Amino acid sequence: MDQTLQVRQAAADLVAAFASNDSARYFACFSEDATFLFHTLAHPLLSRRAYEQLWAQWQAEGFTVLACQSSNVHISLQGELAIFIHDVATRIRIAGEEHALSERETIVFRRQDERWLACHEHLSVVSQA
Prior knowledge:
Nuclear Transport Factor 2, Chain: A
């Protein structure tokens, strides 16, 4: 299979796992050394484990992903790395209240054995120009 298609499928799997609120499947899409930079946090998360712990805390506080759609995809292959850029429309529930989010995201994938795993995620707000 073409590498661009492999990255596209890896990203689709990640988004689908997130959209279905399937924690185990979602985190299996990331390498252990993955880093995360979210506009909603004061500091980056420097490992998958750190994000998993925060995710569990969020869920204990009533966080649930209801839906997530990816659009405007661009993939750039850089050797053993791939840069995946897209717009993300997400519906979440926090403590019983639903929210619709429009964000832009960059996910860096790294080829490990025969899989593409996400090794960095950067989430930002979509600016209204």
